[in-house]
Amino acid sequence: MDGTYIAEYVRTRTADTVRRSVERIEASRRDITATRKRRWHTVRGASTSDREVNHLRAQVQRFVNRHELPRVQASYNTAPKLCDACGRSIARGSPEYDIAFVTLTFVFDAECFGVWEEEMGPPKEASS
To answer: At how many degrees (to 10) do helices 3-37 and 110-120 cross?
Structure first.
């Protein structure tokens, strides 16, 4: 094997790795964008689902901190984890959201993340 072959092999492997990384990042970006567009609509009345929605919203509100900007990292679940808000298992390959404040870090599934995002409210404009 000569140096030219090795250099070409490394260049090809690097390009392939970068391409796959860009594809995964784009897929995550699409998932985050889709989740942000989704809004939680409750059904009015005394149904069981209404109580469940209110309970979920109450659980998620425990994780709201409007005084600090969190770091949010979206990824696909690769290991068994439970959602910190609802306690349900996050299926392997499903989106999960790691949210970190200075003193608190937690993991949400896609449904709880959508509720949490609504409860956090719109981002505040920087005052001049």
So the answer is: 60
pTM, to two decimals: 0.55
Residue indicated by tokens 């790795």? 17
- Closest to 47 measured CA to CA, from 36, 39, 38, 55: 55
Strand ranges of the sheet holding 95-100, from the earlier edge strand across to the other edge: 71-76, 95-100, 105-109
Q: What is the residue extent of each domain of the chain?
A: 3-120
Contact assessment for residue 103 and residue 116, using Cβ atoms and an 8 Å cutoff = no
pLDDT in tens, 49-69: 677 778 888 888 888 888 888
Contact 111, 94 (CB under 8 A): no
